[in-house]
Specification:
9% of the residues lie in helices and 17% in strands. The chain is mainly beta and 155 residues long. A 3-stranded antiparallel sheet has the order 3-4-5.
């Protein structure tokens, strides 16, 4: 049977029932970086490009290129979680969404973490988060140390 999902889902037995994707948006396996996104933007990039330097001047919601004057996700609208229209995961697959702060807090509270410099023999570094919930202790996700983009640099 063919799957229409872009992702594999991992059930870690979290109290909320939330399942985590096994890899990043734009990747096809856990050890691939995937794409970089600016907050609230659904266009992904493999890194710094001529079109996207990840600076305030090319940020979609910056009104004047400054870091304090935004048209959305600002002190007026008080939005702190992505709306579906601005969610990169939702843009790639409608049944997905980017995790919230609360999602990460739940994940951390219900898993153990172990750093690796050679995930599955790939030579890729990151953290393996393994469920501590009974019946799920054989389930884990890998969070790749993919770095980030900002101010014209990939770090």
């Amino acid at each position: 049977m063919l799957s229409t999902s872009l992702y594999e889902w991992v059930d870690l037995g979290l109290p909320s029932g939330l399942k985590w994707a096994a890899w990043n948006v734009g990747a096809t396996k856990p050890e691939e970086r995937g794409l970089y996104f600016a907050w609230g933007e659904t266009q992904g990039y493999t890194g710094i490009t001529d079109d996207k330097q990840f600076t305030w001047s090319d940020y979609e919601f910056s009104i004047d290129g400054s870091e304090s004057n935004f048209s959305k996700y600002n002190s007026t609208d008080k939005l702190k979680e992505l709306e579906t229209s601005d969610d990169a995961a939702s843009a790639t697959q409608s049944t997905c969404r980017m995790p919230t702060k609360a999602d990460f807090e739940e994940l951390i509270a219900n898993t153990t973490s172990a750093w690796t410099n050679n995930y599955n023999g790939s030579g890729v570094s990151g953290v393996i988060l393994t469920s501590t919930k009974e019946g799920y202790t054989d389930k884990s996700i890998f969070v790749l140390a993919a770095g980030g983009c900002g101010y014209g640099s990939l770090y």
